Amino acid sequence: MSERPVLITRRSFLIGLNLSAGGLALGIFPAWSRADEPSGKSGKAPTTADAAEEAKAPGLNPNPFVHVGFDGLVTIVCARSEMGQGVRSSLPVLIADELGATLARVKVVQADGDAKYGDQNTDGSSSVRNFFDDLRRAGATARQMLVAAAAQRWNVQPDTCVAHDHVVEHRPTKRTLAFGELSAAAAKLPIPAEKSVTLRPRAELHHLGKELPFIDAAAYVTGKAAYGADVRVPEMLIAVIARPPAVGGKVLHYDPAPALAVPGVKRVIALPAPKAPYAFQAWGGVAVLAENTWAAMRGRAALKITWDAGENGTYDSDAYRRELAASLQKGGTRARNLGDVDAALAKAARVIDAEYYVPHLPQMPMEPPVAMAHVRGDRCEIWASTQNPQEARSTAAKLLGVPEERVTIHVTFLGGGFGRKSKADFVSEAVLLSKEARVPVRVQWTREDDVRHAYYNAVSTQRLRAGLDGRGKVVAWLHRTAFPPIGSTFAKVKGPTAEDLQQGVLDLALDVPNVRAEACAATAHVRIGWYRSVYNIFHAFAISSFMDEIAHARGQDPRDVLYELIGPPRTVSLADLGIGKLPNYGAPLATHPVDAGRLHGVVQRVTELARWNDRKREGRALGLAAHRSFLSYAACVASVVRDPERTVRVDEAWLVLDAGTIVNLDRVRAQLQGAIAMGISNALFGGVTMKKGATQESNFRDARIAGIRDVPRKLHVEIISSDGPPCGVGEPGVPPVAPAIANAIFALTGQRIRELPLLRALRV
Amino acid sequence: MTIRLRVNGVDRTVDADPEMPLLWALRDILGLTGTKYGCGQALCGACSVHLDGQVVRACVTPVRRAAGGAVTTIEGLSPDGNHPLQRAWMELGVPQCGFCQAGQLMTAAALLKAKPRPTDDEIDQSLAANLCRCGTYPRIRAAVRKAAGLPEK
Lengths: 764, 153
Ligand code: FES
Ligand code: FES
Fold this sequence. Notes:
The structure holds two protein chains of two kinds.
Chain A: H1 8-13, E1 27-28, H2 51-56, E2 60-63, E3 66-68, E4 74-78, H3 91-99, E5 106-110, H4 127-154, E6 161-164, E7 167-170, E8 175-178, H5 179-187, H6 217-221, E9 237-242, E10 250-255, H7 257-260, E11 265-271, E12 285-290, H8 293-302, E13 304-308, H9 317-330, E14 333-338, H10 341-347, E15 350-358, E16 370-376, E17 379-384, H11 389-400, E18 407-411, H12 425-437, E19 441-444, H13 447-452, E20 460-468, E21 474-482, E22 514-520, H14 536-554, H15 558-566, E23 571-572, H16 574-577, E24 594-595, H17 596-609, E25 621-629, E26 632-643, E27 647-658, H18 665-685, E28 690-691, E29 694-695, E30 714-719, H19 737-749, H20 758-761
Parallel strand pairs in A: 4-5, 9-19, 17-18, 21-22, 27-30
Antiparallel strand pairs in A: 1-5, 2-3, 3-4, 6-7, 7-8, 9-12, 10-13, 11-12, 14-22, 15-20, 16-17, 16-19, 20-21, 23-24, 25-26, 26-27, 28-29
Helix pairs in contact in A: 3-4, 4-5, 11-12, 14-15, 14-19, 18-19
Chain B: E1 2-7, E2 10-15, H1 22-29, E3 48-51, E4 54-57, E5 70-72, H2 84-91, H3 101-114, H4 120-126, H5 137-147
Helix pairs in contact in B: 2-5
The structure holds FE2/S2 (inorganic) cluster (2 copies).
One FE2/S2 (inorganic) cluster is lined by residues 37-40, 42-47, 57, 59 of chain B.
């Protein structure tokens, strides 16, 4: 590998620890061993290279994702951001399996933001489900070329040769040639057309669904993994920004002198105020640039600023909640309609009616947003913990008025994302400041900034109404939902569209003859954004709580009522759902239908595991919820107990997921364990409140998240094994957790809480 | 002001405002970026390091308090990542995003030093203020037990 043109200049220019030129620590599968290099050419483990350099390196390089060096080292590019979901330990393995590579001789490098990798937005639980076949094809293409090269060398038919364990073997004679010996010849062959590339049968993907080596584990436990704030370059200044309390607010007057008097502070720069729609613009305010973070923070504290509150300066959570309720009263756009709900409700023997509220939720990734930009003339280089490098790149290019090619963006490790880091606003800030200050500038968000200036999950109010016939069977179902949608961040919109209701409302299997769902008006006064599971959080909370309410109103077992409501195992057609179309998270219904059987299946399994039938005899207070999201099916049972310190506490939880084919079993399990913790945070503590346009909470003290004592010691996750098409895994575990807890609290206390966070509303 | 301290066994001098929190002295001046900023208010534990053997929150510990003292950060927990806790952490795949893990490990290391065979309550108690947004808590518990040689649950 010594001949490879590694970017020495840029590497030596970075002071950061263990950084590759691309900013992210180089990943090598744990069993990496230099001793068994087939060609013995390279005496050293590869140093590092960024993905763009990789493409130029000698060797077999049929596509942007895979490279086979002359020494047999296979380099695989991970184009999705690593934020804790283990994507770097998952996607590359698919390619390696298709190729027939030995993981110990595979190196993973992180892609910069570039269109050639396809969509890099690490969002929507899409990394595996959208790239499963494409990435396999990338590996299979390289394999086919290596096989062709071997067949040529031996003068045999390619179909008598197979690739495995980093060699191509001629089956009849058992001769083998190592990948490294073939890569030069393979590189000269034509790249096979997509349709002539054959994928291996599943059984040959040896690592699929197994517990895979965790490529970044060592970097994580030694402090060597480099996150956004760990990137350092000479001459760099750190910026901390005082932002107006409400989005759209402006600086009326400020005095930079006290900030400049703080030792270490170099510059004070006012940022332009954004105009609605706010999209990925910087929030505005006044930035303090200093030699170190502490000086920048002290400088910010010393600033004296008078704000103009701006157009959202009266936003108030209590008033807004009343507004949303009024909007529900009026009704909205029909997004789902089956039979005649009004007539059925009018005739119903009994009507059950409930309203649910879920506040804005801030993502609060453990690492607050950080981006560094270095603008030099018409070029710009960026390092950021971003979920969406392409978006950040085009945002930067637009700000600078330069073509995208002039902007390079390196993705660091992300200290969590949960949707927050899909937005490029913090990158915009770094770009504006570096341009003005003419030095590299790293913008550091404090936790307070993060809580106050996030892109919150939408606040929502929902009204559900069910009409029951004389025997208690549900014959009418009306669901109205009002929330300011994410679309409001990018355009002036009056409320959710019918499509926004795909998240849990349209795709709910119901065996009810009359069903209607309505999207009700709601305008935004803060930036709304993605948050792990997004609208599914509040839709699942309302629907699963409501099903539990119906069961208790009928004096029946909530599980039986859930089965009855979703109906018998079947694929539910659009006509049966009462909708014209379903966005279905971008997947075709043919491969990913609305499947009541799979929903039933996760409920059945989770209640078996939780010994649901014995709960009364054992004196346990259990709650159940199930939800389809991101094409997967998840069900949760929570057990709650009274707790002297914390009123109630979850003491045991079960979560079952059916996500089709699983690539990396251990990381998916970790995602589910994490989903329970996040679900507990959402349920018990979550949410921010707004007054005069400003967020009242600011740090973990008042914007609480679950700590170790809030998460049960007895925590069970199970993944249903399946070879169906892969579905989302990062998000689907979250939605059923909060309603399961709410339902368990009802079982324990008899109190029905229809809003989050549950602990705020719980009467002790 | 020049402050002398021992960091991971090496004598270092820091030329800084004595009130600067140890966290920023470590990260910005000494270039030891393994210790993380998560809240700045002693609420999350991401910045946990050892000062003279005790766990402190580096974000609220003025660097002057470390003058003449010995600081251990994640970079110095073991020479080559083989502290029993680091090994257990890797074997059980504890980290998700990894950002809180330096703080978790430093806190757990101090716990095991004081209580080589901690009870479940002691584990939870000692890590109660080390937040993990990814929710790695079940594996943290298991890995602490494993490193302590306690039976699997
Ligand atoms: S950063 Fe020090 S406790 Fe959070
Ligand atoms: S592993 Fe992500 S915050 Fe703990």
